[in-house]
Amino acid sequence: MRILSLSVIVLCLFLSSCFLMSHDVVIDNPSNYKLSVFLDEETFILAPKNSIEISVSHGKHQVRVIEDSSKIEKFIWKDLAIKSDGILNISGSEYVIEHCIFNNFENTTTKDNKKKSVIINDFTYYGNLELIKADSIFIPKSWDRGLEENISSIDDVNPRNKTLSKIFRVGDFENDFLRNVR
């Protein structure tokens, strides 16, 4: 009887934790406009070229975005499913994920063998790159370094070779590429 009671309690705790699960979500505004974001019952004001990280419950959400200068509703999503950490792409922008191999012996970054080209603003970039299209409203996290983190900080990399990835706003990626080419 005790084993059955204990099993029921453990099952109840597990199921309740699934419903109480929350995710770290970055609301990003890479645009040149101040945006008001309404996520369910909460309001967030984002300055141009700014982001905010919030905790969002697992499940479906209502999202509205209004450009403050024109008071025009830009986007509205009903029943947006958030099932993981990630980025809420409120401006319908493109992002780039770059995958790099860090070699601890040389403490340098080398590009992976799986080179892919991506075209951004009529320019072709080569590397282990992934372009996230503008129609991705919620971008599930598949990177190690976020928008504001530097990929070249390898202090926490212990294995001999480790692949790390970073997500960039397109403009930040272009600036980083030009800075590394010079």
Description:
The protein is 17% helix and 49% strand. Strands 4-1-7-13 form a four-stranded mixed sheet, with no helix packed on it. Strands 3-2-5-6 form a four-stranded antiparallel sheet, with no helix packed on it. Strands 8, 9, 12 and 14 form a four-stranded antiparallel sheet that branches. By secondary structure, the chain is of the alpha+beta class. It folds into two domains: 68 residues, Sandwich (Immunoglobulin-like), CATH 2.60.40.2890; 87 residues, no CATH class. The protein contains two helices and 14 strands; from the N terminus they run αββββββββββββββα.
Task: Give a brief outline of the structure.
The chain is of the alpha+beta class. The chain has helices spanning 2-20, 170-181; strands at 22-29, 35-39, 42-46, 50-57, 59-67, 72-82, 86-89, 95-103, 108-111, 116-120, 123-127, 129-132, 138-140, 161-169.
Give the helix/strand class.
alpha+beta
Number of domains: 2
The largest β sheet comes out as: 4 strands, mixed
Low-confidence segments, given as residue ranges, are: 107-113
Q: Provide the spatial order of strands within the biggest beta sheet.
A: 4-1-7-13
Sheet-strand content, in percent, reads over 45%
> What average pLDDT do the residues reach?
81
* Count of separate DSSP helical elements: 2
Helix fraction, binned, reads 10-25%
Roughly how many Å is the radius of gyration?
Answer: 20 Å
The oligomeric status of these chains comes to single chain
Q: How many extended strands? A: 14
**Shape from CA axes?**
flat
Instruction: Write down the secondary-structure element order.
Output: HEEEEEEEEEEEEEEH
End-to-end Cα distance: 72 Å
